[in-house]
Structures are given as structure tokens and as C-alpha cells.
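Dear colleague,

Thank you for sharing your sequence with our group. We've completed the structure prediction you requested, and as agreed, I am returning the results in plain text so they can be pasted directly into your records. Please verify that the sequence below matches your submission; if there's any discrepancy, let me know and we will rerun it promptly.
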Amino acid sequence: MYRAASRVPRRAVLAAASSGLVLTSLENRDKLSIYPRADPDVLLVETTSPLEEQIGAVRRQVQGVYADGYSYVQGWISKWIGIEHAVENRVKSIISPHESLTPGLLYVGIATLTGSILTRTRALPTRILLPPLFLVFSARHFLPNTTANLSSYLGNLEEVYAPSLAEKHEVAKAHSQMAWERVKEKTVDVRRKVDEGAVGWVEKVQGATGLKIKETLGLGQPQPAVVQKVEAKAPGWAERAKWKVEQKVVEAEREAVEVERKVAEALKIAEKKVEEAVKSVPEAAAADVAQEVPEEVVVVQAPAVVVVEPTVEKKEEKKEEEHKHLV
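Please find the predicted C-alpha cells below.
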């Protein structure tokens, strides 16, 4: 009985305490605070789907292919621009600034077409060979400097890419030049013989008839125009010969200076060797080394510059030969 009575107050106390806690919690929940609450931190976790990963991989591949193609195209564009600049510089170096291409090329084209027109009813070899000959000779006549620059450029290409053909070409040019000189000499000789024969016949006729045909025709006497040309060109030839002699003298002086420099360097090297030998060998062998060293030293003497001036007789002979060639 006493135990049951003691249990009742305990239960009442526990019920009252629990009801008080509930009331206080409700009061705290319903009552707002006068201070603002801090926003809670939100943590976002990025997650990618397999589709997004595949799309990103494809996009990166496309961008790489585009970059490679762009760089490849830009490389070819740069090469083409370089080729354009090289061609432009080469054309500027070939075309002479002192020659006008507008009428010159027109004349060359007309001459080439004239050759093809003249040979249209001829044999096949003539039709093949004559137009190129007209082209070459007309270009040399109307555009000499440009043609010379072009031929030198083609010669350089031939030497670089076909040296054997270039050697054969040079040999053929030398033979053709020799043949042309021989033809000129033969022509001069034939003309001289014809003139001598004509003068002989005129002298015979003059002796038989007594008429002064030789003086009237002016045979056997130098023509005034030819004499004037020779006299006008003589100072130029003298200046040219003088300039060539001066160039040779300058080249010889340069060679002499170079030889002197080499001799000085050789002497310095020999002196250094002597000093090293004297330091390295004992005093007893120093005399033998000093005797052997001068035999190893080679002294190069500078070539003497000799300027040979033509004598008066040679000058007269040269003038006569030039007069014959002009005649």
C-alpha cells in the first residue's frame, strides 16, 4: 500500500516535467529572434553525365583537327608568299632598268612571227630552226642587257643542276667563238686580197691609159671616215689599257701584302717554336736546336710587280691591225 502511494507522486512529477519541456520547446519555436540568421552554406557537387563526356571528347578532337588544318594551310600560304617574293626579286634582277619592255617585247614578238611567216612554205628543219633564231637575235638587238641577264641566270642554273651539260656548253661556245674569229680573219684577208687585186688592175689600166683612176676612186688610201673612227676610239683604247694595267698593279700589290703577312705569321710561329724548344731542351742541346730551326723556316718572297709598256712599234702595228679590221 505504501509502495503504491509512493509511486503516484513520481509519475506526476515526470508528467509535469515532460509537459513543461514541451511547452518551452513550443514557445522557443514560435518566438522569432531579433537578430538575422546566417544563411547556411550550400555545397554544389558537379556531376557530369556520360553524354557530356562524349560530347566534350568529340569537341576537343574537332578543335585539334581544325588547328592542325589551319596551321597546315598557313604553312602552304607562307611558302607561296615566299615563292612570289623570290620570283619578283628574280624578275627585277633580270629586267634591266635602262631598257623599256613595252616596245622591245613587241619588236621581238614581231620578229619571231616574221620568221615563222617566212618559213611557212619551207622545209621542216627551216620552219623549226629559223623562228627561234629570229627570237634570239631580235632579243639581243632590242633588249641586250635583259637578254644578257637572262642568259647568265640560265647559265647559273645549268651549272648548278647540270654541270656536265654546262661544261659541254662552254666548250661549244669556245669552239663557236674560235670559228667566228677565223671567219672574221678570213673575211678580212679576202677583202684585203680583193682590194689589192682591184688596185693592181686599176694601176695597170692607169698605166695603159694615163688616166688617174686610182686617185679618183681613192684606192690604196685610207678612208677619212675610217681614220676619224680610229682616231676617236684610240683614246678610249688607251684609257682602257691603262685601267687594266692599274687593276693588275693593284692586284699584285694586294698579293704582295698578303704574302708579307703570311711571312710575318710564319716568322712569329718559328720564333715561338724556338722559344719552346729552348725552354724544353737542356742547355747542351740548345745549340743543336738553334741550328736545326732555320732549316724548317720557309721564307716566301713577294712576287715582283712588272708592268710591261708597249713600245712604239707595237702600238703602230696594233693600230694597223685595228685599221685592217675596221676596213
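Summary note from our side: Residues 95 and 106 are 15 Å apart (CA to CA).

Kind regards,
the structure core
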